[in-house]
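Help wanted!
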Amino acid sequence: METEPAAEPADVPAPTPAAREPIGRSNLMTGLIVTAPVGSLVISVATGAIFILGVDGVRAVVAGLIVGGLVWLVMGVAATSFLQCDRANRSIHKELTTRLEAMSAGPLPAAAERQLYALAQELHVSLSSDEEHRRLITQLQNPPR
Amino acid sequence: MTHSLEWALGYGYVRSWELLHRIEEEKLFASQPDELIAEAARDTLRLQGSNIDNRDQLLEQLQRATSVLAIRSGVSAGVIPAPASALTGLVPPFQPLDDEVARRLIRQVRHAINEYRDDRRLALVRARNQLLRTIVLTALVTYQLVVLAILAGAPRPAFISAVAFFLIGATVGLFNRLYLDASTETAVEDYGLAASRLLHTPVLCGLAALGGALIVPLLSAQINPTIDDSAATIAASSLGAIFDITQRPFTLVLAAVFGLTPSALISRLQSEAEKYKSDLKSSETPAVR
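Answered by r_m:
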């Protein structure tokens, strides 16, 4: 099987703080979107609870918005841990990776192989190549003295 | 759509399945004849139990292609009992081009099965995301109702009664959900659709209970004029009285009954999802099925 040449550690640019920030912000936005169904309910519950506890009128609405909004924010931040493909839905990810590994066994047309490795990279799966298999077999047959 | 949002909403998985299927089809096309015949036999079994459109034509196409491959490779395709009609017009010896055409036909059939399954997966994901959007909008409307009641200076006991009606409706709705879930297929992945439906149920049933608890006493007062003289005073005095559990405990029963009303809508949503899941299950590999 053909494999992409392994990149040297020095070739991989370290993400700068400026580059990390937009990713963090976009992940937070995603977290807020994903938790929106529960978050929008939490705001109603918080506003109602504050009113029942004795705060009246606009103050109750504003306090409800602040408390509910904060809870939603916390949920959004917590949800960012579950946005990666291997955590958003574990069972589908497992099914996909099992299929991917099964597919990587045996010969593949070059174009399909490139697509397979690209997909494996996207799904955070490491597929051992034929060359690696051969290297391991050679290593087992001729152990270093 | 950002990368993480794509995974969180489930579209990323559908795209991955589609890509994986294209790779699988390429691999199938380049396979050895024995492997190709075995895969064709597997697709025959998958097609036989499925609800795919043009199933019979696909089966016939598969059997003709398998027969050509089997005869050219000098093996008997005994695993697939081909009907006489499938072999009509097939006269050996076959040319290399026939082999190429047979491979393409087998790949086409696999593509049709894969596409059918991918479409069902996409439908499940879309239904789930649509339901999540509905939940957000319903929750926002509920929030506006809460804000309106607070800003209009609703008395606290009436507000608590309204919350109680909402909660009773939500509880009854969830119990009903439990009953409906007993008949659902859980072996097939539904991409979070059942969880979204579960979240949707208390909001919808709670609002229905609140509406029922308000509308029925109002309507009965309007229909029966002996309760009060003036229609205006009926409406004005009723709102305070309706949302008072101590004076009208029977309204709790009304709320519970109305909490069940969205079940028709919810079960319709469920039956749609069950259809997609059943389609997916019917076209699975027989060993998995």
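OP: Thanks! One thing I noticed: Chain B has eleven helices and no strands.
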